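for the recovery benchmark. C-alpha cells below, seq after
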C-alpha cells in the first residue's frame, strides 16, 4: 500500500476481511479462528471472560483449535500492554480473539499488533465501532490519551452475536447510535475538504454512500431496536441498528474521515463533569454543534431534536453531566480544545474560538 505523501493522492478503502452478525454468531468463532492456526489467545476482562469464555472454548475445541485465556486488567496503558505481551509470547499463538467493549477490543488489538498476528473481534456491546477498526487507543496511568496506534490491517474477522448485544444496558446502545449519527455529516465535510482518511488516502464515494445508509438506518430503526433491547430479544430493528453502529459507522470513519463532531470530544473531555460521559454520547452532542455550525435549516434541527429527545440522546451539557448552566469559561475551554483537534481541518471554513463557543451557546439556549 502507498505510504507517506504519496498515499494522499490515492483513494483508499479498507475493511475487515469478514463480518458475521446475528443471534448465535458466537458459534462461528472456532471455525473462524481455525483459519488463523491451531492456537489462539482470548483477551478480555474478568467479566467478559466469564460471559463468553466457555462458549468460545467450546467452539474452538469443536474446530480443533487450542484456546488460551489472557485476562485484561481493564486499562490500556503501555505497562498493561507490555504485561500482556510478556504473558503471551511463550504461547506462540497464531491469532488473538479480542472480546468485550471498546477497551477489551482495543486490548486484544494491541496484543495482536505487538505479536504481529491477526485479530478476531468479538464485541459484547454495540456502543462503538472499535470492532471493525485497525486503530486502538493507548492511555497513560492517569487515563489521559497518550497515543493512537495503527495495526497493519483491519481485523481478520468481526463476529457480532446479537443475542449478547440484546442483553446489554440501554445506555450503551444509545452511545453506539450517538457515535454513528455523526458519520453522514463528518464524512461529507471531510470529502468536501479533500481530507485524508485513516489510511492516509482520499475517501471514496463508497464511504459517502455508506454514511448515508448508516444515517437512514438509525432514523428508521432506533425506536424498534430500543424496544428489542427492553425485551432482551434481537429482532430486525436491533439487527439493523447493530449493523449501523458496528459495521457501517466503522467503515465510514476509517474510510470517510471525521470532522467537528468527533473533535468536540477533545473539548468535552476537558471539563471534569462531562469528561467521563460515554464517547458516543459526547459525539452525539458534538453532532448538534456541527449542525449548528453548518447552519442547517430550522425544520431539520427540529426533526433531529425530536429524534434525540425521543430516544434519549443528550441535547445539552447538563445531560452530559454538567450540574449547572455552562459558563463563558466552560464554552471557551471546550471551543479552544476542540479547535486544536486535527479533524477540524475537515470543515467548510476555518472556525474561530468565538464561532465555536457561539454555536455551543446556541445549542445550550434551545428550549427542548
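predicted aa per position
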Amino acid at each position: 500500500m502507498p505510504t507517506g505523501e504519496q498515499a494522499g493522492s490515492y483513494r483508499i478503502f479498507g475493511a475487515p476481511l469478514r463480518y458475521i452478525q446475528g443471534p448465535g454468531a458466537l458459534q462461528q468463532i472456532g471455525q473462524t479462528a481455525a483459519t488463523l492456526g491451531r492456537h489462539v489467545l482470548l483477551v478480555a476482562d474478568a467479566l467478559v471472560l466469564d460471559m463468553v469464555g466457555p462458549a468460545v472454548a467450546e467452539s474452538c475445541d469443536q474446530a480443533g483449535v487450542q484456546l488460551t485465556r489472557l485476562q485484561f486488567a481493564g486499562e490500556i496503558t503501555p505497562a498493561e500492554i507490555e504485561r500482556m505481551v510478556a504473558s503471551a509470547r511463550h504461547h506462540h499463538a497464531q491469532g488473538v480473539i479480542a472480546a468485550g467493549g471498546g477497551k477489551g477490543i482495543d486490548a486484544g488489538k494491541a496484543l495482536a499488533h505487538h505479536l504481529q498476528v491477526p485479530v478476531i473481534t468479538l464485541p459484547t456491546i454495540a456502543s462503538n465501532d472499535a470492532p471493525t477498526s485497525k486503530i486502538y487507543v493507548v492511555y497513560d496511568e492517569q487515563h489521559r490519551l497518550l497515543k493512537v496506534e495503527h495495526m497493519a490491517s483491519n481485523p481478520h474477522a468481526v463476529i457480532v452475536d446479537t443475542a449478547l448485544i440484546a442483553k446489554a444496558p440501554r445506555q450503551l446502545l444509545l452511545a453506539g447510535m450517538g457515535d454513528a449519527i455523526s458519520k453522514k455529516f463528518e464524512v461529507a465535510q471531510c470529502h468536501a475538504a479533500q481530507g485524508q482518511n485513516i489510511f492516509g488516502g482520499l475517501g471514496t464515494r463508497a464511504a459517502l454512500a455508506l454514511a448515508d445508509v448508516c444515517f437512514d438506518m438509525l432514523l428508521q430503526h432506533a425506536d424498534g431496536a430500543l424496544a428489542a433491547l427492553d425485551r432482551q430479544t434481537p429482532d430486525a430493528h436491533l439487527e439493523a441498528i447493530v449493523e449501523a453502529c458496528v459495521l457501517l459507522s466503522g467503515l465510514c470513519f476509517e474510510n470517510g474521515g471525521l470532522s467537528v463532531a468527533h473533535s468536540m470530544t477533545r473539548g468535552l473531555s476537558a471539563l471534569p463533569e462531562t469528561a467521563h460521559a460515554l464517547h458516543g454520547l459526547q459525539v452525539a452532542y458534538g453532532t448538534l454543534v456541527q449542525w449548528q455550525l453548518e447552519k442547517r435549516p430550522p425544520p431539520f434541527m427540529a426533526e433531529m431534536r425530536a429524534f434525540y429527545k425521543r430516544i434519549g440522546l443528550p441535547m445539552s451539557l447538563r445531560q452530559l453531566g454538567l450540574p449547572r448552566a455552562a459558563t463563558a469559561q466552560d464554552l471557551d475551554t471546550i471551543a479552544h480544545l476542540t479547535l486544536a483537534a486535527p479533524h477540524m481541518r475537515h470543515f467548510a471554513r476555518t472556525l474561530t474560538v468565538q464561532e465555536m463557543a457561539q454555536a455551543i451557546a446556541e445549542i445550550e439556549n434551545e428550549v427542548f
